[in-house]
Amino acid sequence: LNQKLTYDHVLDVLGAVDTEVYSKLLRMTLERNLPGVMAEIEELVIQGRELGQFVSDFTWYLRNLLLLKSNDNLEDILDVSTENLARLKEEALQIEDDTLMRYIRIFSELSGQLRYASQKRILVEIAFIKLTTPSMEQNLDSILQRITLLEQKMQEMPDNLQKLASLAPAAGQAASSKTAVVE
Length: 183
Description:
The chain has helices at residues 7-14, 19-30, 34-46, 51-70, 82-94, 97-114, 120-132, 140-182.
């Protein structure tokens, strides 16, 4: 094609996506940023990326995260650059094992559904909605993720309760002085 062979040109020809996109999507999913995820999917569609390939590659990306979380000695198995390996290690610390397994399950199922689907984009969007909103599913993985989210919120509560407790003595004194006046 009389063009220099570059990484971006290869991605364009194959309809593939750079691993940075998977990282960005994973982080937005973990943050429950559904509008950002949908915008990223829109961008992939506009660029003409093959959604079936995207789902397979994203599942592979999640698999690499799971391998890293499972054992540090599995780095040699991963066929990624040093930069991508560092990003994967960072992300592996941000995601719980159960959540990662749920994501892999959802995308593995999606991969099978996309083979015969005429509306691939809708199926991909639904999968990300499931990831960002575990309450929409009633299976064990989703319930476990919901419990994990509640536990995280409860861990944040002591800080808020301490703030309230520091205000309580002042409020208690004010209340007791009002009752003394009333009596």
